[in-house]
Model the fold of this input.
Amino acid sequence: MSTKTSAKTPNAIRGTQDIFGADAEAFAFVVETFERVRRLYRFRRVEMPVFEKTEVFARSLGETTDVVSKEMYSFDDRGGESLTLRPEFTAGIARAFLTNGWQQYAPLKVATHGPLFRYERPQKGRYRQFHQIDAEVIGAAEPQADVELLAMADQLLKELGIHDVTLHLNTLGDGASREAWRAALIDYFRAVKDQLSEESQERLEKNPLRILDSKDPRDKAFLPDAPKIDAFLSEEASAFFAAVTSGLDAAGVKWVRAEGLVRGLDYYRHTAFEFIPDEGGVSAAALGSQSTVLAGGRYDGLMESLGGAATPAVGWAAGIERLAMLVGAREEAKADVIVVVEDDAVLTKAFAVLRTLRSNGYSAEMIASGSPRKRFDKASKANPRAILSLGGEGVNSAPVRSSEEDLVNKIADLIYGSGVLHQN
Ligand code: ATP
Ligand code: MG
Done:
């Protein structure tokens, strides 16, 4: 391979991001907070493959969904098998539940995070490689699983400092309710078919619930009068929804009813929800038109579409980038200690000092390049909690400068106490 220096550097792939600095800190803060909160709720960590057989997604999500019909990164591998970069977590986790016999752990509470891939039109808050945090409860038919998951989502947002985002909640009913509602929606929209958007005309017979999700003004005109799920809910489905809402009230999770809220994926039953920024709030302004930060619901029908036994389950996912936008840029932390090597003769001592500091939990770095006279100034500019200069006035001299007297004493104790340096 020739690497001529005159050759043009390849661009990054459209819709991918190189996240750095304060944005990367915000991203890490989201992930760390999620890790902490999922432990509080006793969700177990899983690591999932980034790709699966294409049919895992095609069968679980359904061919009529945007994700499967337009957004998947699918390719044949060298063995001729069709594979797809995961566009979401749930289908892969469901596949793993079935292929690994995780039924034995049911009800299984799992959490994960990582990159996902969708061929979408890139814009603010919408990328082709993006990242999600994800939580699922598999093998739990009871509404308390929904309540737990929603309480976890709510606490996560609060701990991220996001207070102007509200849970919008709906029920899609059980299989029978959903079917009856679907039939009524088809009747209703069929009567006005030629006034709907082309996309909705296409969706009409196959996936009429999706029309409720439409942002096209031609469709929106007909949404307020469309049949509502409440008219079709079986007694059991109503009781289920009532148990979810009273559980949320008891857990102190604020919610609003969103009758038009549906999930794009075919396998959803009962609870469907999205956390959406309040109109006029700071978060709404930060996100612009890509408003949903966290979304999910109950997917009791999924396991069967993958050839497994009927298994009730509920879960959610949230875009890390969108959460990071709400968190805002976060400063990279200052070092606890910067070790300035003022004389290269004591460089090896600096390694020992650094090791001692770091093993005792102090973040530390060294400045040992460039003109020795300028190193101290460089350290001052970086504004650490303390500066330790080595070799300025003899090999064993190690003055520590800091406005925190406590810290000065602790550092002195560590480096002299451990015998790394000897006090003059
Ligand atoms: P949207 O209506 O915004 O396309 P969706 O229904 O496709 O969302 P889900 O599949 O439910 O989204 O994904 C859950 C969350 O993942 C979203 O609420 C959002 O925060 C995030 N998300 C989805 N797609 C993208 C993307 N292309 N780029 C960044 N984040 C995304
Ligand atoms: Mg989408």
The chain is about 40% helix and 20% strand. The first strand starts at residue 44 and ends at 45. The pocket of adenosine-5'-triphosphate (ligand 1) is lined by residues 88, 118, 120, 125-127, 130, 132, 264, 290, 292-295, 317-319, 321-322 (CB under 6 Å). The first helix runs from residue 21 to 40.
